[in-house]
Structures are given as C-alpha cells and as structure tokens.
Amino acid sequence: MCYTSGMKKFPDGFLWGAATAAHQVEGGNIGSDWWEWEQTRGRERSGDACRHYELYERDFDLARSLHHNAHRLSVEWARVEPQEGRFSDDALKHYAEVVLALKDRGIEPVVTLHHFTNPLWFARDGGWEDRRAPGRFLRYCDAVVRILGKHVRYWITINEPTIYVSHSFLFGVWPPQARSLWRMWRVSRNMVRAHVAVFRMIHQVCRDFGLREPAVSIAQHMTALVPCGSGLRCRFASWLRHKIFNESFVDALVRRRALDFIGLNYYSRQLVEPSNWGIRSLLSDVCRENHRPVPKNSVGWDIYPEGLYELLLKLKKYDLPVMIAENGICAEEDASRWIFIRDHLRSVSRAIGAGVPVTGYLYWSLLDNFEWEKGFGPRFGLVEMNYRTFERKVRPSSLKYAEVCRTGVLSAE
Ligand code: FCB
Prior knowledge:
Blueprint: E1 8-9, E2 15-19, H1 22-25, H2 33-40, H3 52-65, E3 70-74, H4 77-80, H5 89-104, E4 108-114, H6 120-124, H7 133-148, E5 154-159, H8 161-170, H9 181-208, E6 215-227, H10 232-255, E7 262-272, H11 279-284, H12 305-315, E8 322-326, H13 335-353, E9 358-364, E10 383-385, E11 392-394, H14 396-407, E12 409-410
Parallel strand pairs: 2-3, 2-9, 3-4, 4-5, 5-6, 6-7, 7-8, 8-9
Antiparallel strand pairs: 1-12, 10-11
Helix pairs in contact: 5-7, 7-9, 8-9, 12-13, 13-14
The structure holds beta-D-fucopyranose.
C-alpha cells in the first residue's frame, strides 16, 4: 500500500466491480416464495424488475465500460429447480451463458447460490426449517457447480444468513414472517450445515475435474454496533449483537474449516440502546433520539465509513482474505454516492495498511433494483434504471468509481 500525498494505491489483482442479485434485477421470478408473497401483501411487486434476465449482456457491457474486473451475481434456485428434483436445462444453460458473457468481457464472476429467495415447492414443504433443507440445497448447488464450475472460481453459498434468519424468522418482516427465536435457531443450524456441505462439494468437484482451487465463502452482513450510552446495558447489548449478528455464523464456519475467504457486506451503523434487559430489546432496540447524528441514506440508514475500518480490523483474527461483497448507498442525488464510495474505500485502504488482506470491493449495486420489502424506491445503482422504458443511464458517480477501478488508485480529493 502506497500513501503518496494522500493517494491510495490498492494491491495488484484487486477485484473491482459491483454486485446484483437475481430476484432484484432479473424480473419474472414467478417460481419463488418472494414472488408469491409480493402478490398478496399489496405493496410494490418485483414484476419485470430490470429485465436483466434478457438484458444481461447490455448490463455487462456497461460494467466493462466502467472498468469493472469482477461482478457478483446470483443464480436463482427457483428457476434452476422449479419442481423438487426436476432441473431446468434452460435455466442452467442461461446461467452458463451469463457467466461466459462476463468472462468474454474480462470480468471475474463471483457467484452467489442463495440470495434470500427460495423455490415455492421448497418454501411450502418446510423451507429452511426442515431437516431436509441442507440436502436439498446441496443437490441444487451440485447441479449448478457441475455446469458453472469450469468458469467460476469465487462462490458465495448463502447471502447474509443472519439477515435472512432474523428478517424472516425473528422480526417477521420477510416471508414466512415468523417471530420465533426457536425457528430462527433451527434455520441458522440448517444454513450452517448447508454451507458446510456445499463448501465440501465445490472443493470435491474442482478436484474431480482438475479445476483451479476454488474460493468459497458466505456474504456476511456486518453492522457497526456502537453503544449509544456508556452504561452497562448499552455496552453489553452491542457486544452481544456483534457476537450474534456479525460473528456467530462466521465462527461456526471457521470452526468447521469451511471458509476460504470472508465475504463482507457492510452498509451502516446501529446506535445500540436497549430499553430493558429482555432478549428482544437487547437484540433489536436502537436509539430513537438521533444522538451522535451522522448523514443518512435515503431510507434512513446511518452512513458510517469508519465502521467498515473497525469491522475489518476485527476480522483480522480469522486470518482469511476478505472480499467486500457489498457496500453501497441509496440516494436521491448522485453526488453523495461518490462521497460514500470514496470514504468507504479510504476505510478499506486504511485496513489494508493495518494488515487486513482485503482482496476486492464490489459496490451494491450495478443497477437500481427491487429493494425487497421497500420496492423500487431506493436507488442504489451506479446505473440509473428507467422502470418504464428499461433504459439504463450511467450516473456520474460511476465514472469516478470507474477511474479507481481502472487505475487501482484512489486519489486524494
Ligand atoms: C443487502 C442485501 C442486498 C440489498 C442490499 C441493499 O442486505 O444483500 O440484496 O438489498 O442490502
């Protein structure tokens, strides 16, 4: 790392790019549990999304023109296995073409196998709570890896397992809208088992086919947890949340030697302020008074770049490479996007300087897209989407980021 006059040079071979997820961009994901859920709950539906399923080459042309050398996408389980045990050759062929389209453009694919959505048959037949879940997920992943394995080195098995289990099984905001610690725990256990099985399978398939050593991880969402006050309850709750939401999944996988690197998704800070000693309050209460204010994104999340530095330093103990698998801002005006990227890249560069082996940075997201229960309102994209015409428009911030991707250097201003 070189620090000449405030300029930051990133390591050679650093992966630069952006991330997307199938359900949020592809459109028409009719066989998934999210699609069904959207139809009945009366808010915005994903519908055609960005029509990325058909327009992916256009999107990858844009990524190339922005000098991205890596791109994270997800494969949609509901498309690949629309009925239990029946695999769609068309869908598998499609994803092989998608990955090749990236390769043709000199872009390294980073492939996620589960990004929040499930096939309907799976969700209706016990979903992730069922003890058959790890085996079912393994069978689907095996089909994908056998087709894509030749072209893909970086795999993310499960995106943000702790966000998935907490939103779907504890806080009740995502399907199946459960509110139960017990159910959350069962799902977490099954996801750990599923990851470990898929991790081993990917390594085995690569050995069997004489392929390059793969790099397999999860994308772990981490929030900077800052106690709002100096009292014991705030400090204890921050510590507990960090252990549970940020580290427990990673710890479980490290213990089982099932991570080749750590995929880190980072967005924001939580000012921790539990109102009582009850477990729900300890796990979820945040400060409502806006003490210690910082700028916020358009959906009210605190913007806190130093949190990325702090979390990266905490990852040092694992002694594994770290890839920033998501980091981004939704903003009404684009100027704040570049400031966000610049400030977070400064944190990354400081962490590298402090000895954390960060190997890549993938901005969330390449395109504006369907932001889950929030619909199409939040605009995270480097590229602006017109949801009526499906016209794509490169935003000014993406050109500034493109310069960093091209040179590997973050300039001082
Ligand atoms: C992350 C999700 C991603 C996107 C961003 C804004 O938690 O992984 O799909 O919704 O948040």
